[in-house]
Every structure is written in C-alpha cells, then in structure tokens.
Design brief:
Blueprint lengths: L1 H13 L19 E7 L4 H8 L1 H5 L4 E7 L2 H9 L5 E5 H7 L8 E9 L4 E6 L14 E4 L4 H12 L8 E4 L2 H10 L4 E5 L2 H7 L1 E6 H6 L5 E7 H6 L1 H20 L1 H12 L3 H8 L25 H14 L9 H6 L12
Parallel strand pairs: 1-2, 1-3, 6-7, 6-8
Antiparallel strand pairs: 3-10, 4-10, 5-8, 5-9
Helix pairs in contact: 1-4, 2-11, 2-12, 5-14, 7-8, 11-12, 12-13
C-alpha cells in the first residue's frame, strides 16, 4: 500500500500537464468531453494519429490533450493517480500494471506494434563484451519496468547470467545516451530512436526480435482506463479507428507514414521510414484474430502472453503475484472487433 500511495503522490506532483482539469477528473464522467492521452516518442502509428490530428477530426467535441512520457513505468504511475485516460505502453509494464500490488483498472484495446529490431541490447565498443554472457561484472542501463528491462532480464536468463552478476541501472533512453557518451556504461538495452545512436559506437548482442522467436515476445499496446471505456465507449471506438487508419498508412503508404513520424521525432522522412521498418506492425484485421486481441466472445492469445510475462516477472521478484488468465482476459477490450476498426 505504501508503494501505491507513493506512486500517487509522485504522479500528482510531477505530472500536472497530463491532468487536464485535475488529476482525478475526466475519465469516469460521461458528460466531461475530454481525453488525456499519454504517448511515447518511438516510431509507431500512435505518432501518426497525433501528428495528423486523426482523433481530433473524429471527435471535434472533445478536448484532447497529448502528454509525452519517457517510459511505461511513469505511465503506470499516471494511471494509478487517475491522470491518464489512454496510453501507448509496452506489454511488460502492462503485465506489471495488471498484477499485484498495482492492479491498475485499465483495458488493453489495441496492439500498436510487435518489438523487432527496434529494441536491442548493445555493448559499447571498448567494453570487452562480445556476447550476453560477457556482461558479468559489467554495468548495463535500461529503463526499469519497460519492455527493454523485461527483454534484458530474459536475455540474461537465456545466457545463464544471474541478475545479481550484473549492475543494472535505471535510466531513461535520453539519459542512457548521455551516460553512454561519457563512457559510464558497458551496455544498454533501449529502443529507437536513441538505439540508433548506441549502435554507432556499439555492438548489438541481441534484439527483441530474436528474443521473441525464443519465446519472450514484447509488444507496444494501447490501453484505456476502465472507467473511461465505461463512460465513453464511442470515443474509444473512434480512437481504435484512428489507430487502424495509422496502421493502414504504414502498410499502404510508408512514405506518408514516415513523414508524420519524422516530424514527431525530429527525423528526416528517410530516417523515419528506416526506423519504422525495424518494427513489426499488424494489419487492423489481424487484431481480432485468435493470436492477438480476439473478440468479445473469444479473447485472443495476447492474454496468455501477458500472463507469461507476469510469470517471468514474478520469478525475477519484480511483482508480488501473477494474475490468473481469467483476470487478464477480462482486461482485454475486444468489444466490436473486427467491425469497429473500419
């Protein structure tokens, strides 16, 4: 309980721009036409929705506020504080959020992307590290409670390296880049766009694509606060349609998609397109398949993926308890699929 109270206090003090008319306002009131969206600066369809104002066009009566967050851990903190309605967040933080002690009441309503080569573990040249087993006694940075953190633990476990054999430090991607430049780190697990800077003076040891094939996939998900889903189901439908438009653009017009993403990340269209190509983006129709969200009548295997992630986090002593499959299935929002995606 002290953990949860401290999270609420931190969110109240540090996240005023995400609160709109107040930290606890908005979500559960059907008469309050506002949406507070947490986004992250990585190549995705979510940035296309933001850049092109797709949701604003679909919901002109709503006041929509976009607030940038650096990691899933800080987004979970904001949900605990009631400061966010919708967010882009990694699957590992979602598994944490659905587990004790957080037990955050939110719903997984979209799969933004599947991590591929856009997340990776990189060793700094000169560190003497040439493979994951060589990280013993070394200093490795990653944002705690992120998909990268989960993948780092999975990579160490796969290589037979104990977490206690490595000094793991909690740094956000932009801070990793600064520490890397100073020579303070031997390795880091991070994501684009900062990952590209690490690759310039480092060696890739393993990517999230490789770990996915070994049974530890990670994803970026769209989640919605349960009280917001209940109070504003039509707005959630509009948001899912906007995200579907963005996925279609990535598949059908990569250049246009890259132009929007490039503006948001301060990259050239060519560089943005190269970074987008490193992720795995589903087609909207795929979301309702048994492999992903499924339907309201038959929830998909995404729930199993989140339970598996929680089980791994429990073995690593990162959560107190693993939620059962029925609990996680109840947190998959598949109402109206696939028709609602347009």
């Amino acid at each position: 309980m002290r953990k949860i109270l401290s999270l609420v206090a931190a969110a109240t003090l540090l996240l005023p721009t995400a609160c709109g008319d107040g930290a606890a306002s908005g979500g559960g009131d059907p008469d309050r036409k506002s949406i507070r969206i947490a986004y992250q600066a990585f190549p995705s369809g979510d940035l296309i929705v933001k850049n092109q104002g797709l949701l604003e066009k679909a919901l002109p009566d709503y006041q929509i506020t976009w607030t940038k967050f650096d990691s899933g851990a800080s987004i979970n903190t904001a949900f605990v504080a009631g400061s966010v309605d919708i967010a882009a967040i990694g699957s590992s933080p979602v598994a944490r959020g659905l587990s004790a002690p957080l037990n955050i009441p939110y719903q997984v309503a979209f799969v933004l992307d599947v991590a591929g080569d856009n997340e990776a573990l990189v060793a700094r040249k000169g560190s003497g590290v040439t493979d994951v087993s060589g990280l013993r006694g070394k200093k490795v940075a990653t944002p705690f409670a992120s998909t990268a953190h989960y993948s780092l633990l999975a990579a160490l476990d796969r290589a037979g390296v104990k977490e206690s054999d490595v000094t793991i430090v909690d740094l956000e991607p932009q801070d990793i880049q600064a520490a890397w430049t100073r020579g303070d780190l031997d390795a880091a697990y991070s994501w684009l766009p900062s990952l590209d800077e690490l690759r310039k003076t480092g060696t890739v040891l393993v990517t999230s694509r490789e770990l996915a094939t070994a049974g530890k996939p990670t994803l970026d998900l769209g989640v919605v606060a349960t009280d917001f889903v209940t109070a504003h189901p039509a707005a959630v439908d509009a948001w899912r349609k906007a995200q579907s438009q963005a996925l279609n653009l990535i598949h059908n017009d990569p250049a246009a998609a890259a132009k929007s993403v490039g503006v948001e990340l301060n990259l050239s269209p060519e560089e943005a397109q190269r970074q987008l190509s490193q992720g795995v983006f589903l087609k909207p129709a795929d979301l309702a398949s048994p492999a992903w969200l499924g339907t309201s009548a038959a929830k998909g295997q995404l729930a199993d993926n989140l339970v598996s992630a929680a089980q791994f986090l429990k073995t690593q002593q990162k959560i107190d308890a693993v939620p059962d499959l029925a609990t996680v299935q109840a947190a998959i929002y598949a109402e109206g699929l696939p028709d609602v995606l347009g």
